[in-house]
Design goal:
This protein is mostly beta strands. Helix content is 11%, strand content 43%. The strands form seven sheets. It has a four-stranded antiparallel beta sheet, with no helix packed on it. A four-stranded antiparallel beta sheet has the order 4-5-6-7, with no helix packed on it. It has a four-stranded antiparallel beta sheet with strand order 8-9-10-11, with no helix packed on it. Strand 22 and strand 23 form a beta hairpin.
């Protein structure tokens, strides 16, 4: 005869098994893992393309200027005049300057260049969540904090970087920069923000002394107090900082190459000249796009190789550190205008925008060879790595 005191346990086990037999397994109900992507800001057509970083498939794009007519119509005469001046100096419409995706892969944050604002979008629906005007008349490079709560954008004509609450778009703070602040980046531990300024790019090289202050500004990420600054005689273009924050590699205005900079000593250790192409050598410095000879730099996942976009020379170079020797080049069609570089998730491949070809070149760090070309929108420029929720991808335009 069965023991009566064991009956409750037997019934509980039976009920558990029965429930499992009629209820779908929780494992099969789990959401698909987020997709590793590279975001590409198509500056001229106001869209952001999402590229699968492993298959190189263009998953689609999101329109980030759906309110363009409304914004232009709402500008007062002063802002509209400034918009037209900025547009002329930029060489046309530049609606997407930078774009980042939230940690949960559902929200896209964009600094909208010539419109002078920042905006957020729900990726799945394309709905604009908020829009915020920055100080001045142009929004430039941006960075997103690791927790996704703060969006930092360069208000380029106001000589400051401003921080926005990503939940509301509210401006929460700012810190002063050099003239024409450009790139923003968080330190590896998230405690500091690095801002690089380039000076007034519309002035010719002969008037370089009048371009303003060209410097790197380091601010506390929480208090926004400026901790230190580094002054340069040329504008600081794309740069990378090593994980220990001891060394910075940077491209400078007019320099066909890059520098290695000791952040502890505050001095340039090495200047590396990269080869000119025939077309690049024939250009006058005032013909360089926005004063930049080379514009685009990334560091691989193991921090021992650099990816360099040779903008006027139409190539990408892979350079090994610490020796700073060139492993190889990927050469492009003349006039391709490689204009930005980012390391994709996984750390083994560099994505380089070819702005005049509306393409992205994928370069293998190990072999220094191109492994793919991806067609994107009009005038791709800034790229960022991130993750996108699988179910949000249905909202993209293909």
């Amino acid at each position: 005869m069965p023991r009566l005191h064991a009956l409750p346990a037997v019934l509980a086990l039976a009920l558990t098994l029965a429930a499992g037999s009629v209820t779908p397994s929780s494992a099969t109900e789990q959401a698909a893992p987020p997709r590793d992507v590279v975001l590409v800001g198509n500056s001229a057509d106001g869209t952001v393309s999402f590229i699968d970083s492993r298959t190189y498939e263009n998953l689609g794009s999101l329109d980030v200027v759906p309110d363009l007519d409304e914004v232009l119509a709402g500008m007062n005469p002063i802002r509209r005049a400034a918009y037209e001046i900025v547009r002329q100096q930029a060489g046309g419409d530049k609606f997407v300057d930078d774009a980042h995706v939230s940690p949960d892969g559902r929200t896209l944050y964009v600094s909208r260049g010539n419109l002078g604002d920042a905006a957020a979008y729900d990726i799945a629906s394309g709905r604009q969540l908020w829009r915020t005007h920055l100080d001045g008349f142009k929004a430039d490079h941006a960075a997103l904090s690791a927790d996704g709560s703060t969006f930092v954008v360069s208000a380029i004509t106001a000589a400051k970087a401003q921080t926005l609450d990503t939940a509301t778009g509210r401006i929460t703070g700012e810190f002063p920069t050099g003239t024409y602040p450009h790139e923003n980046m968080y330190s590896p531990d998230g405690n500091r923000i690095y801002n690089m300024s380039i000076g007034v790019t519309s002035l010719p090289k002969a008037l370089d002394a009048l371009k303003g202050t060209k410097r790197v500004t380091v601010a506390d990420a929480k208090t926004l107090k400026v901790l230190r600054t580094y002054t340069f005689d040329k504008g600081v273009r794309p740069a990378v900082v090593t994980p220990d924050e001891k060394t910075m590699y940077a491209q400078l205005s007019y320099l066909n190459g890059f520098i290695e900079y000791d952040l502890e000593a505050g001095r340039t250790v090495r200047t590396v000249a990269m080869p000119f192409s025939a077309a690049g050598a024939a250009l006058k410095p005032d013909d360089y796009p926005q004063n930049s000879a080379h514009h685009g730099m990334a560091l691989n996942g193991t921090h021992d190789k650099l990816c360099m976009a040779g903008t006027i020379d139409d190539y990408t170079a892979v350079v090994s550190r610490p020796g700073l020797t060139t492993d190889g080049f990927v050469h492009y069609e003349q006039g391709a205008l490689p204009y930005w570089a980012v390391t994709a998730p996984g750390g083994t491949h560099c994505f380089v925008t070819l702005s005049q070809r509306d393409e992205v070149s994928v370069v293998d760090y190990r072999t220094a060879r191109e492994v793919a070309r991806v067609k994107v929108g009009d005038f791709p420029q800034r790229e960022r790595a991130g993750k996108v929720a699988e179910d949000a991808l249905a909202g993209l335009r293909r």
